[in-house]
Amino acid sequence: MSKNPFRPLIRPVILRRLCDKPKLSNKPSNTPHPPKDPPDEGYEPSSVDHDAMDVPGFVNPSTFRQFCGPDEKLGPGAGKALAYKNPHYFGYHRFSFMELTCTSTELRDERRLDGGLQASIEADEEAGDDESQLETMKKLEGECDEILAIQAKQIQEAKSKPKDKNIEDMSDEELHEWCKKKEEDIKKKVQGKQDAAEPQKKIEDMTEDELKAWCQKKEAAMKAKEKAKCEANEKKKSEEAKKKYEEEAKKKKAAESKMKSEEVEKKKSEAANKKCEEEKKKKEEEEKKKKCEEEDKKKKCEEEELKKKCEAEALKKKCEEEERKKKCEQEALKKKCEEEERKKKCEQEALKRKCEEEERKKKCEQEALKKKCDEEERKKKCKQEALKKKCEEEERNKKCKEEERKKMCEQEALKRMCKEEQKDDKCGAGESTAKSEEEENVLRVFTQFKKKCMDALEQKECEEKQKREAEKHQKCDTDENKKDDK
User: Is the Cβ–Cβ distance between 57 and 123 less than 8 Å?
Assistant: First the structure.
């Protein structure tokens, strides 16, 4: 690609020919200064006096215009505590961009000279109390959170509503399209009303002239639609071509501007690098001198420190020896005291053991005496119980013998009565009264005999129980005797 030197001069002429806009005038565009711009000479303010914005210290106050007062309204809702947080935009003038670029380049050069480290931009201020700063920061964070919540609500409400731009905010193209849409809507409404007012005839009922007119209308409508489509396609193509051409031109301009800026930056960087190298060399030489001086000072200090250490070590050794002697004496005294205490403890323990042994012997003797007494008492009790049992058994045997004798007597009496009754049956009826009395006597004898039998059975059961208890006692006595023998 051959570069034409006159190409940047020819390009604006080509763009003007392609565009449909009117030609620009050849008059100078420099108009008189507006009232808010700074004067040409002598504008060097020391600070920005406005309450709605904060300016950092590294920014030159001359980048902002003159304000009528600290309460001047900069813009719609612009301020630190308002919706629009960038009120600086409304305080710039026509030369603000140039001054800001100059300050940024100066800061960049300073950083390069400092070896890539950021220079201290703001002046060192006196640090206030940390607690007060934390409180102010918390308050500001709370205010910011409230403002952000309000803004989020407003954004959600705006999204929920249909987005319709105002006519004042529309561009020329949007206004032109909006007007066309409105005209088309109005025409459709008018045609609809006319069609509703005039009832259309059917094609079969139309005459030849009406059919021709109706066909011509349809053809005209079809042609108009095709023309509109063609025009819209041509407009789109032309707009796309213009956009492509403009983009290519912008890209070329950007490339050229980048090349120029890169060359300027290279030159500046080379100069800055040279300065940095020279300053580095000077610094290295100064550092070497300082290092030599510091080494000499260190050597002297080390020698003095060694002397002090030797003196301190000698004193420490003396003190340690004295402490060791004191410790040895104290340990010897402690050993003597401990030995005496041990002897005393051994004597006390021997006395305690003797006393405990005597007490144990006394307890054993007392327990042996108690056991003997208990055994004698048990033997006495066993003998008494055996005597009682023997007496009871003898009495029971006597009673049983007497009862048996009585029973035998009663049986003999009953037999005699039965024999007499048999004899009396043979007697006459005159003797019937005597029989009735004899029967009563017989019944009494039988009842008495039954009672005696029942008493005898009970006595037998009692005797069996006594025998069982006696056997158990004998077993217990034998077990106790075995234990005593053991």
Answer: yes
